[in-house]
Design goal:
Layout: H1 11-29, H2 37-52, E1 58-63, E2 79-80, E3 87-96, H3 98-102, E4 109-116, E5 127-133, H4 148-159, E6 167-171, H5 177-185, E7 189-193, H6 197-202, E8 213-219, H7 220-233, E9 236-242, H8 246-254, E10 263-265, H9 266-269, E11 274-280, E12 291-293, E13 296-305, E14 311-319
Length: 324
């Protein structure tokens, strides 16, 4: 069903969101390969917050750097913007891939999504089991209620190929050993990524990445961000929150999550119109990273809108120290 265009999300905000992610990416790029995850994240957070506060809107961070007592800025519930204009909810990750950045690895991004007030799931900072495929397939083709083998066979049949021609993207973590073994046992190719599961999920929507399906667990906030991108370009996504202890269950209750076993569909995570923006920090499957060229820096970004299905690729050239 087509998404109705929001009168709150003015077209001007599309470009403004790119400026915000550009600012964070440029700030973080100075820490690429320096081995300091905290400094890289802090640089991106400060730059993103400053860029937000230059904008004419009344924004609330619903997915951010943590709760107020854990993060000095861009924490959940923080107000950003000038406080005038439209009321919007913001999901953000100023530096998706702090370890990647510290080690100069691929796919580090500055990422955000915005929607009308109350239209983004306020996901607690816990793990989420995820499965995602790109657009063009029958509804409910894959599901967390089925085994990885069943999902790969269903996808292969719909695509008209053998299971050994399917490529799955999975975070390279010890917790995924059984999943990886099951996928390889049926001949499925597995692309392991060290970090950055927002880029991993989004990759299923781009045939050039050769990734057909994303599986496994990662951060729940990153799941909402990735779902916002898929809401713009099409695709299927399911997520189920995972709780390791009573503290995490209590945190979920604080944010209004009462059904701890619920499987969230795309529309449960992102309702109505949404704008998604990302800028590359390091080179990756989705975007090129920030490049220094003499006294200038270049960026590559993508910005999408759910109501129009528009995807814009934006190349920026910035004088050092100036983003605007």
């Amino acid at each position: 069903m087509p998404v109705k265009a929001s009168k709150t999300l003015d077209r001007v905000l599309v470009l403004e969101m790119v400026r915000v992610t550009e600012a964070a990416a440029i700030a973080a790029c100075g820490m690429v390969g320096r081995g300091d995850e905290k400094a890289a994240d802090a640089a991106a957070v400060e730059a993103m917050r400053h860029a937000f506060n230059e904008l004419e809107f009344d924004g609330t961070v619903v997915i951010g750097e943590g709760e107020r007592d854990e993060a000095p800025m861009l924490y959940i519930g923080e107000k950003v913007g000038k406080g005038t204009g439209p009321k919007i909810d913001i999901a953000l990750d100023p530096l998706e891939g702090t370890t990647i950045t510290a080690k100069a690895g691929p796919n580090a991004l500055a990422v955000l999504a915005i929607a009308e007030e109350g239209c983004l799931l306020n996901a607690p900072d816990v793990y989420m089991n995820k499965i995602a495929i790109g657009p063009g397939y029958p509804k409910n083709l894959v599901s967390l209620t089925r085994t990885p083998t069943e999902n790969v066979h269903a996808l292969a049949k719909a695509k008209g190929v053998a299971p050994n021609e399917i490529i799955a993207c999975v975070l390279d973590r010890p917790r995924h050993e059984d999943l990886i073994a099951e996928l390889r046992a049926i001949g499925c190719g597995v692309m392991l990524i060290p970090d950055g599961d927002v880029a991993g999920v989004i990759a299923v929507s781009d045939p050039d990445t050769t990734i057909d399906i994303y599986m496994g667990s990662g951060g729940a906030p990153e799941g909402v961000l990735a779902a916002a991108a898929l809401a713009c370009v099409g695709g299927q996504f399911e997520g189920r929150l995972l709780f390791r202890n009573d503290d995490e269950r209590a945190r979920a209750s604080k944010w209004g999550v009462t059904d701890l076993d619920r499987i969230y569909q795309l529309q449960d995570l992102v309702r109505g119109d949404a704008i998604f923006a990302a800028t590359g920090v390091t080179d990756g499957s989705l975007l090129q990273g920030v490049k220094r060229r003499g006294d200038k820096m270049t960026t590559e970004s993508v910005v999408m809108r759910a109501s129009s299905g528009t995807v814009r690729w934006v190349k920026g050239e910035h004088r050092r120290g100036i983003v605007g």
